Amino acid sequence: MAHDQSDLLQGTLELMILKTLSVEPMHGWGMTQRIQQTSRDVFQVNQGSLYPALQRLTSRGLIRAQWRTTENNRRARYYILTRAGEQELARERAQWERASAAVGWVLAWDGRTA
Amino acid sequence: MTRVSRWYWAARERLRTVFFRGRAESELSEELCFHLEMEAEKLVRSGGLTRLEARCRAGVAFGGLERFKEDVREARGLDSLAATGLDFVLGLRMLAKYPALTLVGGVGMAVGIAVSVGFFAFVGTHVTVTLPLDEGDRIVALENRDVEIDNEERRSIHDFVSWRRELRSVEDLGAFRNVGRNLVTGDGVPEPVLVAEMTAAGFRVARVAPLLGRYLVEEDEPA
How many C-alpha atoms does B60 have within 13 Å on its Cβ side? Predict the structure, then answer.
């Protein structure tokens, strides 16, 4: 079952972008493919959400853009995680894990006293 | 250090967007075109489509480029500033393009301003009433008004006492009221006259020497 970004919680796309860029610098299209691949086709990132999100992260200084040449010898705009972005990723990730664990506990509740 | 780095990259991006707007726009177009081409190539590889078909399908799937650009511009958060700058530049270009219109408009505005200034100067000089007293232009009237009946509120002795105690930018503050009295002259016949009852400060404000005796002072007021 594929979902586009509109199904994601607010801020989740930006978290996934930061995580993707923590591995290596990447252009926008590459990020959509990488997120789709690593989410095992659960998420198909809509470009209409991706580029505004990239702009927001750039404006916040969490990532920066740089024009580079791809392996196919094409000019593309690559995004690079800044040091502030690394810290933000760690913070957001911890928050996400705490929230998802809490949702898991609620869903696992069997009706008896916790 | 991280905060400095974040501030640096954020400021750089914002300045680039504001001062190199044209370049930022062309880079955005190039970036979106690259995305479209990569999507078309993927369709050629996986879907067995011709290059033209793939480009058409990718374009349809992508939707309107302008809509995405608008979303990105909105995410920059500086659109209103950039739009103001653009309005300013366009205004200057129009002024330069139509010099006759610029001249007529400029002269019209200058005449309009001159007429307004002249009118207010005339009214200030000839119409505004100045009290015929020494430095009469420095004397102003304060009045409480009852807005419900749209008339003056005369029961304001407490306000007057408060103002006199607290006002610092006013040199002297006096109060007065007009009342009717009977005046008995030498022949013993009373004559009704209109007189003003006033506080002692009124004499200092008017700076008119008394015909007989001395000014009244604050110590005389209780009497």
Answer: 6
Pick among B4, B5, B9, B16 to test the A interface (most A CBs inside 10 A): B9
Residues B81-134: tens digit of each pLDDT: 666 777 788 889 999 999 999 999 999 999 999 999 999 988 877 777 778 888
Cα–Cα dist A2/B97, whole Å: 55
Q: What is the per-residue pLDDT across A10-28, written as a single tens digit (0 to 9) for each? A: 578 999 999 999 999 999 9
Please count the helices (runs of H) and the strands (runs of E) in chain A.
4, 3
Q: What are B's interface residues with A at a Cβ cutoff of 8 A?
A: 1-3, 5-14, 27-28, 30-32, 34-35, 37-39, 62-63, 67-68, 71-72, 74-77
Q: Identify the bridge partners of residue B116 per DSSP, sorted by sequence position.
A: none
- State the complex-level ipTM: 0.78
Instruction: Check A48 against B71: CB less than 8 A apart.
Output: yes
- The string of DSSP codes covering B12-81 is HHHHHHHHTHHHHHHHHHHHHHHHHHHHHHHHHHHH---HHHHHHHHHHHH--HHHHHHHHHHHHT-HHH
Give chain B positions within 8 Å (CB) of A74: 34, 37
Helix (H, G, I), strand (E, B) or coil at B141: coil
Give the nearest partner residue to A77 out of B11, B14, B31, using CB atoms: B31
Q: Exposure pattern of A10-46 as b/e (b: 16+ CB <10 Å)? A: eeebbbbbbbbbeeeebbbbbbbbbbeeeeeeebebb
Residues of A in Cβ contact (< 8 Å) with B39 = 29
Chain A closest CA to B14's CA: distance in Å?
7
Q: Is the pTM of this model over 0.80?
A: no
What count of CB pairs under 8 Å joins A to B? 81
Q: Please name the amino acid found at residue B65.
A: L
Alpha carbons B220 and B223: distance in angstroms, whole number? 6
Non-local (6+) Cβ contacts of A98 within 8 A are none
